[in-house]
Amino acid sequence: MSIHNHSLYPEADPPCPAGSAAHTVRAGDTFYSIAQRLGTTVAAIAAFNPGVNPNALRVGQSLCVPGTGAGPSPGTCSGTRYTIRSGDTFYTLAARYGVTVQAITAANPGVNPSRLTVGQTICIPGTAPQQPALIPTPFCSLLRPVLAVIPPDADIPIGSATVRQVAMSTRAYTIAAAPLPNPSAFGDYDSYAGVLSLITDNPAAPRETVTIRLVASGFGDQLITWSGTTITAWPPIVGDTAEIRPLNTGSGSQGSALLHGDLLPCQG
């Protein structure tokens, strides 16, 4: 990669969006070195700078780097610096670290909780990180229709789905959904998949996606239920989610999520 010196830039750089701050490219800078220096990721920098060729950076060029200007500086965080991962929200982080959403909001002035980006750095108030909050067992979560995919007035019978603990194992999940239309109603699909998104303790892979092929039971005028069971490497943790998606069993391709919900403890 070569970096070219330009003494004049007639066009002004646009302001950076919320959750990021401007960074001026120096000699020798790359997306990787900037990410390492400022505590973010290459993918996050690329997402905030569409159209920027990382192999043709110029000295003096302005980039938007997520997390660097969205909250207190590292020296003013009286708690733990945390890098946003996929699926994080202030609510799930508050539950995981044993603090309140209001406390996280107050510790991160200027951060829009509705526009968190992967790689963004925020402050979790408190003295030290806590262990992830396990969901009390048994768990029996209800998944509801995704209205962006299934409008309320659509002539497609979409019911609900449940995720339940199997026996006394905290790592065995069973998913059951009914009623659901023939999967072909959504395209080239012949089955349904239950998709679990589980938080792990591996920083290199903070979430693991587990797909369960659901099998239909019932026939004729009976209510058809699609269900399946799996055992995972991870117990249920606050912030885990589940979805039902149409599935092509030949290619493995999946459609948009029809039902979605957080894993929660049983109520009542």
From TrEMBL:
<dbReference type="InterPro" id="IPR058968">
    <property type="entry name" value="YoqH-like"/>
</dbReference>
<dbReference type="InterPro" id="IPR036779">
    <property type="entry name" value="LysM_dom_sf"/>
</dbReference>
<protein>
    <submittedName>
        <fullName>LysM repeat protein</fullName>
    </submittedName>
</protein>
<dbReference type="Pfam" id="PF01476">
    <property type="entry name" value="LysM"/>
</dbReference>
<feature type="domain" description="LysM">
    <location>
        <begin position="80"/>
        <end position="124"/>
    </location>
</feature>
<dbReference type="GO" id="GO:0008932">
    <property type="term" value="F:lytic endotransglycosylase activity"/>
</dbReference>
<dbReference type="Pfam" id="PF26349">
    <property type="entry name" value="YoqH"/>
</dbReference>
<dbReference type="InterPro" id="IPR018392">
    <property type="entry name" value="LysM"/>
</dbReference>
<feature type="domain" description="LysM">
    <location>
        <begin position="21"/>
        <end position="65"/>
    </location>
</feature>
